UniProtKB/TrEMBL annotation:
PANTHER family with a match to the protein in the record: INNER MEMBRANE PROTEIN (PTHR30287:SF1), MEMBRANE COMPONENT OF PREDICTED ABC SUPERFAMILY METABOLITE UPTAKE TRANSPORTER (PTHR30287)
Any GO molecular function: ATP binding
Gene Ontology annotations for the cellular component aspect, listed alphabetically: plasma membrane
Residue span, ABC3 transporter permease C-terminal domain: 263-379, 713-822
Chief location of this protein within or outside the cell: membrane
Residues passing through the membrane, by range: 19-39, 259-283, 289-307, 314-337, 357-373, 394-417, 423-445, 713-731, 752-785, 797-820
Name listed for the protein in its UniProt record: ABC3 transporter permease C-terminal domain-containing protein
Keyword list, A-Z: Cell membrane, Membrane, Transmembrane, Transmembrane helix
Coiled-coil regions listed in the entry: none
Topology of this chain in the membrane: Multi-pass membrane protein
Organism: Thioclava atlantica
Localization, UniProt: Cell membrane
InterPro entries named among the record's database cross-references: ABC1_TM_sf, ABC3_permease_C, Membrane_comp_ABC_pdt
Length: 835
């Protein structure tokens, strides 16, 4: 080791010349992972440290579509210092009856104790007392998006659910908004007293009541939770506390952050191609040194150790630069990051994410440097002196075993850091398969270029380009690998985005309703259907009774213990009843008309299969605090992709006799008639909530677009790393280009023809990388749009052309950067130079 250290120290005196590609690849990959990790860590820390603020108290008791009974509220108050009641519901905010004068809002009715934790920031800072309103009308606080959409300023009148309010202020920040999850409309806040006796809280209306509490010092949350669950068993109460105040947000941040880290790891894998090429080129330059060391008696182990020490030192520099760049990007844009997040965060130099990024960088650098290093260290001195090395022999078994061990460590470390084994294995497996297919594609392209040379007779520019692509020192592999992976991610994002937009534009007017209408009271359903029946522009109306319930047990056992965290079991679900099935039965029988026996249920066939249900099983659903245990008598084919009404669970009418409920309706009308339909409904039924399907889809698309932008940004880092690899490959091939240019000039080629040949080979390789990426993007688009979303997929030509042109342009720029000097060299000087 002393000898190896001495050799390494003396070799490092020459500096880092020739290692800038390796440094840049490591720096970019580590920086991307470090930046994502620092932001994710700050958000997770904020979710943990500010649990009481995000929840609105130390603990929360939540009831579905009912308020707590007097004895229940008394028990809650006995175990708390302070209690605040908040009712969350959806409704329509309106300044008139036209479509442009109405907007859906996620409203929150609060009492005088709100907020128990944190501070509500308003503009102007009027305080909670402003909810009392002015001029005999209660006050309302609005999200700035709502205020701008409806053109409202403080003091302007507005209607919420048909009730008169006056806008008092804009909401700048809600302390408890992060834990509320995804909402179809912007938020608004009113006083609880203003809506208590309105139809907004009528029996059967859709709302959730949350009782936030602050607890006496020394209260054990685990003990109180156990007592609360025992006290409210069967009452439909859901418990939350400050330990996990926003589980949905926490889960989303963890998964998105882990996914972006894995995309950053893909960028490191692309950088690994550059690292491998850099190490191979470096060893090739050091061939005389290696030969001399072997001739003087140095063993392969000593040579390998000396070179490993040098690579470790250079890799350490690249990793440290990457950590500095990643931290610099985060803190340099800290203002933008903090304003973009829905909760206050504190960005710090957390050693955890930085250590994770450094570890990934070290593992990937070692993995990709191992093969060229091990191959060259085992070659004989005479072979090196005579320059007959091919560099193609496989490394020995120890190197292969070490490679496998490093791959296993990367997989295990990634899974442990993310905590998501399925996502990690699928993502890393996808990266590995993509790299393998890209390598095979590069081999096929080289073979095709060799086979097509005879077709280029009489076209010297094309023939020279094909010969260079198919030759032994071809740049096809690094080009395809480095560009292909990043372009594949961008192609997939583009195809999915265009596929969904096309499906919406093509299919929505034909198969989806124009409006979902909620909160139709039972005494309103007949005049509601009569009014719509008189409108010639309305093609169809479907209306069904609707309640909301939570499935708590399957065959008498806790439902989540039986079927896990299936989406049907998370939160409450819509429940309906009927004398006849609305969908096709796939198994079992429907209950007879006027059935009055024990409760029976019909379940969606697909979801039943996923939950492991079979005919004769029993399910318990809690509706308005009452447990109903029903036997499954049939399964139905429920197609949720049509955008129409679909219920996972349908009960027989007798099971829900006397239960307060409202009606749900869907209205089918062409886009040009939507405003007229809304105007007449608003005039006749001001209390109903009409959700415009196009607006809802736009809201969902907006959220998905944000994820797509984050993924595209991470893929952009991969592309930038790939471009660095391209430039490195072009730089390492500069001597070969000079020799080729000299030979072609000697044979009579002009500089223009030689330059055209260089440009053509670069463009062909870039186009090949783009075509492979389009294949991946098309498959990903088809899988997501057709298989997952259930709509017809049509290949989007525009993004595909952009990908191909982008690949051609990238390789063209990288190739031409290092083509000018070889063109300027004199043939005599190049051809007479010793090899």
């Amino acid at each position: 080791m002393r000898t190896a250290l001495t050799i390494a120290r003396r070799e490092l005196r020459s500096g880092l010349r020739g290692f800038w590609v390796m440094l840049l690849c490591l720096m970019l990959g580590v920086a991307a992972i470090a930046a994502v990790g620092l932001v994710r860590s700050a958000i997770e820390r904020a979710l943990s440290d500010q649990g009481a603020v995000l929840l609105g108290g130390d603990a929360q008791y939540e009831f579905t579509y009912r308020r707590a009974k007097a004895e229940e509220l008394s028990w809650i108050a006995e175990h708390a210092e302070r209690v605040s009641e908040v009712i969350d519901f959806r409704s329509m905010l309106a300044t008139g009856t036209d479509l442009a004068d109405r907007a859906l809002t996620q409203a929150k009715a609060v009492d005088g104790a709100y907020p128990l934790a944190g501070k509500l920031q308003l503009d102007p800072p009027v305080g909670m007392g402003a909810l009392k309103g002015e001029g005999g009308r209660p006050g309302i606080f609005l999200d700035p998006i709502l205020a701008d959409r409806l053109g409202l300023e403080p003091g302007d009148p507005v209607k919420l659910g048909g009730q008169d309010f006056v806008m008092m202020a804009r909401i700048l920040r809600e302390p408890d908004s992060t834990g509320t999850g995804f909402a179809l409309g912007p938020h608004s806040i009113v006083s609880l007293a203003a809506i208590e006796k309105t139809p907004l809280l009528a029996p059967g209306s859709l709302f959730e009541t949350e009782y936030r509490v602050t607890l006496p010092p020394g209260t054990e949350l685990a003990t109180l939770k156990r007592d609360a669950l025992r006290r409210f068993e069967g009452a439909g109460m859901r418990w939350s506390d400050r330990r996990r105040a926003a589980p949905g947000a926490e889960r989303f941040v963890q998964r998105l952050g882990s996914f972006l880290v894995l995309v950053g790891l893909a960028g490191l894998a692309v950088g690994g191609v550059g690292i491998s090429a850099t190490v191979a080129a470096w060893i090739e330059r050091k061939a005389p040194t290696i030969a001399t060391l072997r001739a003087l008696g140095a063993t392969g182990a000593v040579i390998r150790a000396a070179f490993l020490i040098q690579l470790a030192a250079i890799g350490l520099v690249g990793i440290l630069l990457g950590l500095g760049l990643g931290a610099g990007l985060v803190f340099g844009t800290s203002g933008l990051i903090e304003r973009a997040l829905p909760l206050p965060v504190t960005l710090t130099l957390d050693p955890g994410p930085l250590g994770e990024a450094a570890l990934y960088g070290a593992l990937v650098a070692t993995l990709f440097a191992l093969w060229p290093l091990s191959r060259m260290a085992g070659m004989r001195a005479a072979r090196l002196y005579r320059d007959t090395r091919s560099g193609r022999m496989l490394p020995g078994w120890p190197t292969l075993m070490l490679t496998g061990a490093l791959l296993s460590v990367i997989v295990v470390v990634s899974a442990l850091f993310s905590g998501l084994w399925g996502l990690t294995l699928s993502s890393l497996g996808g990266i590995a398969v993509a790299l393998l297919i890209l390598a095979l594609a590069a081999a096929l392209i080289r073979r095709a270029a060799r086979g097509a040379r005879h077709l280029a007779r009489g076209r010297p520019v094309l023939r020279a380009a094909l010969a260079a692509i198919g030759g032994p020192r071809s740049e096809a592999r690094p080009v395809i690998l480095s560009l292909g992976l990043g372009l594949s991610v961008l192609a997939a994002v583009g195809q999915v985005d265009q596929g969904l937009r096309h499906a919406i534009d093509r299919d929505l007017p034909k198969v989806a309703p124009a409006y979902f209408v909620l909160d139709i009271q039972p005494d309103q359903i007949d005049p509601f259907e009569t009014l719509l029946g008189q409108m010639p522009e309305v093609s169809k109306v479907e209306a069904v009774p609707m309640l909301r319930g939570v499935i708590t047990r399957i065959n008498g056992q806790d439902a989540r213990k039986v079927a896990g965290e299936h989406w049907v079991l998370r939160g409450d679900r819509g429940v309906t009843y009927g004398d006849a099935p609305r969908e096709k039965l796939t198994a079992g029988e429907w209950w007879p008309e006027d059935y009055t026996g024990p409760p029976l249920a019909s379940f969606s066939a697909k979801e039943a299969q996923e939950l492991g249900l079979k005919l004769g099983d029993t399910i318990t659903v809690n509706i308005l605090g009452r447990d109903i245990t029903a036997t499954i008598s049939s399964f139905r084919d429920v197609d949720f992709s049509t955008g129409g009404i679909g219920f996972v669970l349908t009960l027989d009418p007798a099971a829900l006799r006397g239960a307060p409920h409202t009606w749900l309706a869907t209205i089918y009308a062409p886009p040009e008639a939507e405003a007229q339909v809304m105007r007449q409904l608003a005039e006749r039924f001001p209390n109903i909530t009409a959700i415009r399907v196009r607006d809802a889809i736009a809201r969902v698309t907006e959220a998905l677009s944000a994820i797509a932008r984050a993924t595209s940004l991470a893929a952009g880092v991969t592309l930038l790393t790939g471009f660095v690899v391209l430039v490195g490959a072009a730089a390492s091939g500069e001597r070969e280009r000079a020799w080729e240019a000299a030979m072609l000039k000697t044979l009579g080629a002009t500089r223009g023809a030689i330059l055209a040949s260089f440009a053509l080979r670069s463009a062909l390789m870039g186009a090949a990388a783009g075509l492979v990426a389009i294949l991946f993007g098309g498959l990903a688009g088809w899988a997501v749009v057709h298989q997952v979303m259930g709509v017809d997929y049509r290949f989007a030509l525009a993004p595909a052309l952009v990908i191909v042109l982008g690949g051609m342009l990238a390789t063209l720029i990288a190739g031409l950067l290092f083509a000018l000097r070889p063109l300027a060299a004199r043939p005599a000087g190049v051809l007479r130079a010793p090899e």
